[in-house]
Amino acid sequence: MITFREIDKSNYMDCICLQVADGQKGFVADNARSLVEARFEEGLYTRGIYADGVMVGFLLFDYDPEIPGWSLSRMMIGAQYQGRGYGTAAVKAFLQYIRDTMAIRELYLCVELETLWLPPCITSWGSVMWERWNTTLTVSITQKPE
Asked: How does pLDDT run across 84-128, given as a tens digit for each residue?
């Protein structure tokens, strides 16, 4: 089962130690950098991704006034935990989490142009609209009505 915990004094080192696979290093910022940015920039929220009590990944989300809207800015699963379905499960759980705890019905993602891939759980959550923005594509996901 996937759960989320705020990054704090008790788990920040676990977060920093998580690394993506070598071939993925250019796709997401290092967790240490993300934690520093979240500490000193307003409105950035960090969560550890846990599977059965073990931190397996990290995500950072924020409200982006340029869009304007909520954005899943960064997400990673540690190299040693990849290939077990945690990434897809984490995205699905995060979409449910923001809907239930923050009443968010629309979420933006930035996808690098080299990696035009979205987990099926994202496209099943709602309608997807792509828009080119600098070197990335902004993906708007609007939840389907219940």
From this structure: 989 888 888 888 888 888 887 777 776 555 554 455 545 554 555
- Token digits for 137? 């594509």
Instruction: Give which of 80, 78, 75, 79 is closest to 119, Cα–Cα.
Output: 75
Q: Which amino acid belongs to residue 29? A: A
Give the global pTM. Answer: 0.81
**How many C-beta atoms surround the C-beta of residue 80 within 10 A?**
11
CA distances from 119 to 84, 109, 123, 142 (A): 14, 12, 7, 15
Sign of CA dihedral 9, 14, 32, 60: negative
41: DSSP letter: S
Backbone phi, psi, residue 23, to 5°: -70, -5
What are 136's strand-pairing partners? 112, 133
Residue 138, both tokens: 């902004």
Amino acid at the residue 136: T
pLDDT digits (tens, 9 = 90+) for 8-28: 999 999 999 999 988 887 778
